[in-house]
Write a structure and sequence with these properties.
CATH superfamily: Alpha/Beta hydrolase fold, catalytic domain
Keywords: Signal
CATH class: Alpha Beta
Structural class: alpha/beta
Shape: globular
Protein name: AB hydrolase-1 domain-containing protein
Strand content: 15-25%
Number of helices: 10
Pfam family, one: Abhydrolase_1
Largest sheet: 8 strands, mixed
Radius of gyration: 19 Å
CATH architecture: 3-Layer(aba) Sandwich
Distance between the termini: 62 Å
Bound molecules: 2-acetamido-2-deoxy-beta-D-glucopyranose
InterPro entries: AB_hydrolase, AB_hydrolase_1, AB_hydrolase_fold
Organism: Apiospora rasikravindrae
């Protein structure tokens, strides 16, 4: 390598470090936290695959548990610091979506209805008639699928949807060129678990073809103010008009925007995320 090339590499490294230091938090992907105590968790056979899940806090009389559902290409660890804040006062359940993290997949194509059925079946297996569901991104959509299913919806006491949408067009077309996307996908593909190629193809097919809902579908959701449509002030993954649209389509729903965060709020400001979930739980 010629010294001028080395010199320019050093300069560009320094520039990258400086940019990382000065970038506002909503343009960064902070390190993935661990779940409190980094638990071994439990694996349960559900709908033909092995679903990894674990629980925090203690059941409280008269309170439903909180079911935390992570987004596409993520896993429950992404909620680590949010769980840490919530578990003091709540019984919290996390599960890795099929194919993600420590859960397995089979050859069945992913659908949001299947994600919903897995989550509902886990609750049933654990003996819970209902839970407060917190869904992020793909699992905000999976949670909508649960709400639109006559059986699965009976297990949803209330729903907090962060960064969901009603069709593939509600994804922001510039998301894939953002710094957070590059960091997130890089991190996801470094995760050595499972058959990465089959997994990535299954998630990409799902996200590019589903869901396909309209206003008439969302009009069937009757939980009123027990539904919160949440987003980040600097949301980069979902079109900016989407949260207000979903809010207008779900009668009586609440609308919350987290400040100074993007689609990756649970990593960027877990305490604010937990505080908004607390408000939702007490509504
Ligand atoms: C969830 O919905 C699916 C599809 O309708 C159904 O097969 C399954 O039994 C439901 N599970 C629960 C626990 O409601
Ligand atoms: C989406 O749903 C509408 C009906 O609401 C249907 O006409 C259309 O073909 C569907 N599109 C896809 C891609 O499935
Ligand atoms: C997509 O995100 C960018 C910045 O993250 C924003 O400027 C743009 O308005 C968004 N596009 C839509 C359609 O919401
Ligand atoms: C948001 O970030 C800006 C710039 O870093 C800062 O000045 C402001 O106080 C922050 N606002 C909140 C509500 O944290």
């Amino acid at each position: 390598m010629r010294s001028s090339t080395i010199y320019s590499s050093v300069i560009s490294c320094l520039a990258a470090v400086t940019a990382a230091q000065t970038a506002p938090v909503w343009e960064t992907l902070p390190p993935t936290p661990q779940l409190p105590g980094n638990p071994a968790g439990t694996v349960t056979e559900i709908n033909g695959v092995k679903i990894w899940h674990t629980e925090f806090g203690t059941p409280v009389d008269g309170q439903v548990p909180v079911l935390m559902l992570h987004g596409g290409f993520g896993n429950s660890d992404y909620y680590g610091d949010v769980v840490k804040a919530l578990m003091a006062n709540h019984h919290v359940i996390v599960m890795d979506t099929r194919g993600h993290g420590r859960s397995t997949m089979d050859s069945t194509p992913f659908t949001y209805e299947l994600y919903a059925a897995d989550a509902a079946a886990l609750l049933e297996t654990l003996g819970h008639a209902k839970a407060a569901w917190v869904g992020w991104s793909d699992m905000a959509i999976g949670m909508f699928a649960a709400l639109l299913d006559s059986d699965n919806s009976t297990l949803v006491d209330r729903a907090f949807a962060f960064g969901g949408g009603h069709n593939p067009q509600s994804t922001n077309a510039t998301f894939s060129s953002s710094a957070t996307y590059a960091a997130f996908i890089g991190r996801a593909t470094e995760d050595p678990r499972g058959d990465l190629k089959a997994f990535a193809a299954a998630v990409e097919t799902l996200e590019s073809t589903q869901p396909n809902w309209t206003e008439a579908d969302f009009a069937r959701i009757k939980l009123g103010d027990k539904v919160t449509i949440a987003d980040g002030q600097y949301e980069e993954a979902v079109a900016l008009a989407e949260p207000a649209l979903l809010h207008s389509w779900i009668a009586g729903s609440q609308r919350v925007t987290l400040t100074n965060v993007s689609h990756f709020a649970p990593l960027q400001d877990p305490d604010q995320f937990a505080a908004k979930v607390e408000e939702f739980l007490s509504a």
